[in-house]
Amino acid sequence: MKVVVTGGAGFIGSAVLRALAPSAHQVVVVDSLRLDVHQDGGRAARERLSRWGARLVEADVRDLVAVREQVDGADAVVHLAAKVGLGVDLDDMDDYVSSNSLGTATVLRACHSAGVGRVVQASSMVVYGEGAYRCPLHGPVSPAPRTASRLAEGEFDPLCPECGAALAPALVHEDAVVDPRNTYAATKVAQEQLGAVWARETGGCCTSLRLHNVYGPGMPRATPYAGVAAIFWSAAAAGRSPQVFEDGGQRRDFVHVDDVAAAFVAAVASPVGQPGGHAAYNVGSGVVHTIGDLAAELASRAGAPAPEVTGHYRLGDVRHITASSELAARELAWSASVPLREGLAGLSFS
């Protein structure tokens, strides 16, 4: 079995390679080793992949000739390569669209040329925008995007768009309407749609895994594009107080990278999926924690000062987004198994 993993030298990609090792006869990694991810120029990644026996091809996924050459003869392609995170400001917009949307289109075109029939790609919970909410009067509702004026006043929770009442957050399911609220989210929606087009027109099978907040050993440090768990971990490991935006009450689903890797392996091997079909699955722990809880736990484990709740905000952030992963359990026979405290215990703070 030949599996090509784009972005396989990164945080999630490395875990996927470890999980694929028992079942994949040949694993090829296509990764550009971009400096905003691999700040050492990729030296550590090259050494790691060499130890694991994975072949690394240093190439950008927007390079059609290079990608097509590597996916030739592949049984499946796991597409992880992307520019991740919310970003710094709108000056990143063109890089996000080029890296993620054009990059995905190029990978899918290469798969078509090479006759690859299965693609499993990393999507994100950000496609939902704000998560699922329920109004006591109007039932399930989709709140409007939060405004800068309310955020500046410390009013962080969205209100019912019908009556202005406080809302109760709930778990979001895959049939929720997508509602991207930042550039990264928009590119992930586009990626899923491109995968659906590719599957329909080629008869292939495309699976998009909507990853929730991934954490674990190997998280990137000291980069503005890292996830919140990595940002808090970097601060705590350096003996600094984690800086918590808003009031720390934001609800999230933190899922261990080994569980995420197992989901990719399950999707590659799954008999589920009709030819010409696209399916999306939430990949989360199913357990709700707050941002403040995570910061406090990491600070405590590192012996760092307690988190500082700053009240700062980013307009593109959402308040509450937590997943139901029941569909993945039912159709992919996958579920998360690493509790948050156990997963955090495996982090190094040296």
Write the layout of secondary structure elements.
Layout: E1 2-6, H1 11-20, E2 26-31, H2 43-52, E3 55-58, H3 64-71, E4 76-79, H4 93-114, E5 118-124, E6 132-135, E7 139-141, H5 148-152, E8 168-172, H6 183-202, E9 205-211, E10 213-215, H7 228-237, E11 243-244, E12 251-252, E13 254-256, H8 257-269, E14 277-283, E15 289-290, H9 291-302, E16 308-309, E17 320-323, H10 326-331, H11 340-345
Helix pairs in contact: 1-8, 3-4, 4-6, 7-9
Description:
By secondary structure, the chain is α/β, with parallel strands linked by helices. Helix content is 35%, strand content 20%. The protein is built from 11 helices and 17 strands. It has helices spanning 11-20, 43-52, 64-71, 93-114, 148-152, 183-202, 228-237, 257-269, 291-302, 326-331, 340-345; strands spanning 2-6, 26-31, 55-58, 76-79, 118-124, 132-135, 139-141, 168-172, 205-211, 213-215, 243-244, 251-252, 254-256, 277-283, 289-290, 308-309, 320-323. The chain has a 7-stranded parallel β-sheet, sandwiched between helices. It has a 6-stranded mixed β-sheet with strand order 7-6-8-17-12-15. Helix 1 links the parallel strand 1 and strand 2. Helix 1 crosses helix 8 (257-269) and helix 4 (93-114) runs parallel beside helix 6. It is globular, with a radius of gyration of 20 Å.
